[in-house]
Design a protein that fits this description.
By secondary structure, the chain is of the alpha/beta class. The chain is about 40% helix and about 20% strand. It has helices at about 40-60, 65-80, 80-90, 95-115, 155-165, 180-190, 205-215, 230-240, 265-275, 295-310, 330-345, 395-400, 415-425, 460-465, and strands spanning about 5-10, 10-15, 20-25, 30-35, 125, 130-140, 145, 170-175, 200, 220-225, 245-250, 255-260, 285-290, 345-350, 365-370, 385-390, 405, 410-415, 430-435, 450, 455, 465-475.
């Protein structure tokens, strides 16, 4: 099921490149799936020239026709959903059920932006004098460079590409080298849907070399990155030196406030289900649980029971509810976080260790009575760890939730409208879910603040990020 890997530049699939190759590993079996050709400077320059050359044509293509191509691509992705989902699971490790949902979500993103591109309106400003027309035009910013991670290799590229292409921008995108096949399938669908040559270009290779080369190019007018906070800050500095706008969706460490009036069993099962999505390898993953003391013991008990009944294994096998972690680095980091927490008096309520000698499988883990000093309470775990701590009241929970330099996602469980409003007003986060965990939709803005990034993706805000406003004042007549 795993296809030959390549770069996609100026409408051509390139399997022989000047940058060497890199093996792509199946995290469930640790067996190589294929060899990924890597871009050298010649391929990067070819991608830049292709995007630059294609931009005038794509910019002048009507929003209706751009949308038609995106809609056709969405339909093709749906027709190939099972095949693409299998590729995603093979190279990323999540369960096939989760991969199907993600691929369907990628199609929905392309489809939504296809429609939203037709609503990139300008406006007319009332003139100060007769014979003057004052207009604001909304236009594509130009060729863009996008960088996406391995945890959602279909949805995150689709979120960026859908907005950029719908706005009329061309794109050079570098998805993650660990999960290249999924993004190439998106490109294949767009190509088969009639996307003109050069509008989309996909490159893989040395991340530092590629980012520095693309960002410095005069042909690139905007940067969009999803990934770690440290790398995001570095790319922002590179972009600032060139005065290029950036959209950064960076790390998170999402707090969950569980009020005394919440149902502890329901809150535990919903939030642990959210925690285990993609084995916790999600920037919006619920991680720090601040639970009112009055229901604390019940919440911990239900959370542990939920985790212990999960079946971890190869994502292609239907009985498994949790797949592999994406790489061995996540195994090592997860073990280190747990050891540090236990050394500081945290209590292991469920899980706690690796599950197999082969494959990157880790038991869903609950750590109770977490001290604030534990490393996992301040650094993003990015794994199947639920960190639970008792609090005395809502005000203490809000204070603890806001204490870190992250502000991406937050969650809460309460039956009180007053508590819900207090949480919505006080929590520092770009997206907040109350009594549920769904905080990312095509039509809603997505992003955070502080060390979690800048700008927004999805929603009307996501499209506008790839446009510029031009003011035109036209004096067409005057009276003597």
């Amino acid at each position: 099921m795993y296809k030959e890997l390549s770069l996609f530049i100026d409408g051509n699939w390139l399997s022989r490149t000047t940058g060497g190759t890199q093996a792509v590993i199946n995290p469930a079996t640790e067996v190589a799936l294929g060899e990924l050709p890597l871009a050298g400077l010649s391929e990067l320059d070819a991608a830049l020239r292709a995007a630059d050359k294609a931009f005038p044509l794509w910019r002048d293509t009507s929003a209706l026709e751009r949308g038609n191509i995106l809609r056709r691509a969405a339909s093709i992705i749906r027709d190939r959903l099972d095949a693409i989902a299998t590729i995603l699971t093979l190279e990323q490790g999540k369960t096939l059920a989760e991969s199907r949902v993600e691929v369907a979500g990628a199609a929905e993103l392309l489809e939504w932006f296809a429609e939203e591109g037709r609503r990139a309106y300008g406006r007319i400003i009332p003139p100060r004098s007769i014979g003057t027309r004052q207009m604001v035009l909304q236009e594509p910013i130009g060729p863009v460079a996008c960088f996406t991670p391995w945890n959602f290799p279909a949805v995150i590229p689709a979120r960026k590409l859908g907005a950029a292409l719908a706005a009329g921008c061309t794109c050079v995108i570098k998805p993650a080298e660990e999960t290249p096949g999924t993004a190439l399938e998106l490109a294949r669908a767009l190509n088969d849907a009639g996307l003109p040559k050069g509008v989309l270009n996909i490159v893989y290779g040395n991340p530092a070399e590629i980012s520095e080369h693309l960002i410095a190019s005069d042909m690139i007018r905007k940067i969009s990155f999803t990934g770690s906070t440290s790398i995001g800050k570095h790319l922002a500095q590179l972009a600032a030196a060139c005065l290029k706008p950036v959209t950064l969706e960076l790390g998170g460490h999402a707090p969950v406030i569980v009020c005394h009036d919440a149902d502890p069993k329901r809150a535990a099962e919903i939030s642990m289900g959210g925690k285990l999505r993609n084995a916790g390898q999600v920037c919006t993953s619920p991680t720090r649980f601040y639970v009112d003391r009055r229901i604390y013991d019940d919440f911990v008990s239900h959370a542990a029971a939920f985790m212990e009944k999960q079946q971890v294994g190869n994502g292609l096998e239907g009985a498994n509810t949790i797949g592999a972690l994406a790489n061995s680095r996540r195994l090592d980091a997860t073990e280190a976080f747990i050891a540090d927490a236990l050394a500081q008096s945290a209590k292991l309520a469920a899980g706690g260790g690796r599950l197999t000698e082969t494959g990157y499988f880790f038991a869903p883990t609950v750590l109770a009575d977490m001290p604030d000093t534990a490393k996992a309470m301040t650094r993003e775990p990015f794994g199947p760890l639920a960190l639970i701590q008792p609090v005395d009241d809502l005000e203490q929970a809000i204070m603890k939730a806001n204490r870190l330099p992250y502000a991406l996602a937050a969650y809460a469980f309460t039956e009180s409208a007053e508590h819900a409003n207090r949480i919505a007003d006080s929590i520092q986060a770009g997206v907040i879910g109350i009594n549920h965990m769904t905080v990312a939709l095509p039509e809603s803005p997505f992003g955070g603040g502080k060390d979690s990034g800048t700008g927004r993706e999805s929603g009307i805000e996501g499209l506008e990020a790839y446009t510029v406003r031009k003011y035109v004042s036209h004096l067409y007549g005057h009276r003597a």
